[in-house]
Design brief:
It is a single chain. Helices cover 52% and strands 8% of the residues. It contains eight helices and five strands, in the order ααβααββαββααα. It has helices at residues 2-7, 29-40, 51-54, 58-69, 88-121, 147-161, 166-175, 188-196; strands at residues 45-48, 75-78, 83-84, 134-136, 143-145. A hairpin with a 4-residue loop joins strand 2 and strand 3. The relative contact order is 0.07.
């Protein structure tokens, strides 16, 4: 930062660091102090190492630009992306980088969601509690049938095939002493989930 400031003849009035704080939120003490210096006139620009250390949200970046940097009174400079909002070209590059960053995050989210849905459709375990009727294998990856719970599922299927409502199936299982993992009677919604698996 110091070398960048010296190269571009900038005077550093303060160095603020939000160590360990996520750039997902603008509510960070060091950022608040830096923005306070802009508001009070103690500083003319905000110099950051990289834009993603300032914020990871396009909306938050747009709000910062609108609130502090759009009128040209203050400047936003980024060392990593070589952005300098003191010029129209710098403001254009900043806008393009934020849109591309937002697209990248959304694309990663879509790919992750699609991969998880594919795993589920293939019957793969993706974490969380094992569904009723199964237990986690010793390898911690695969699901294996739990014999006692599979017997309850088979009985519930049989009762449902005989025309019983979900409520009646739950009541019949309860009357026979069959309970959910938490020791309580099955609810109709649990029966529906169990039969859909």
């Amino acid at each position: 930062m110091g070398a960048y400031a010296e190269l571009f003849d900038l005077d550093l009035v303060a160095v603020e660091v939000d160590a360990g704080a996520s750039a997902k939120s603008l509510a960070r003490p060091a950022l608040d102090r830096a923005l306070g210096m802009l508001r009070s006139g103690a500083a003319d620009a905000l110099l950051v190492v990289k834009l993603d250390r300032l914020t990871r949200s396009v909306r938050d970046l747009c709000d910062l630009v609108d609130d502090y940097f759009r009128d040209g009174k203050h400047a936003l400079l980024s060392v990593g992306e070589q952005v300098d909002t003191r010029s129209a070209a710098g403001r254009m590059v900043l806008n393009m980088l934020t849109v591309i960053g937002q697209w990248e995050r959304e694309a990663i989210g879509e790919r992750t969601s699609a991969a998880m849905q594919h795993k589920v459709s293939q019957g793969e375990y993706i974490g969380g509690k094992a569904p009723y009727g199964y237990a986690l294998a010793d390898d911690g990856v695969a699901l294996v049938p739990a014999a006692a719970e599979q017997a309850v599922i088979a009985e519930a299927r049989s009762l449902r095939a005989a025309g019983m409502s979900l409520r009646k199936v739950a009541d019949t299982l309860d009357a026979g002493g069959r309970r959910a993992r938490n020791g309580r009677a099955f609810a109709p919604v649990q029966i529906a989930r169990m039969l859909a698996a």
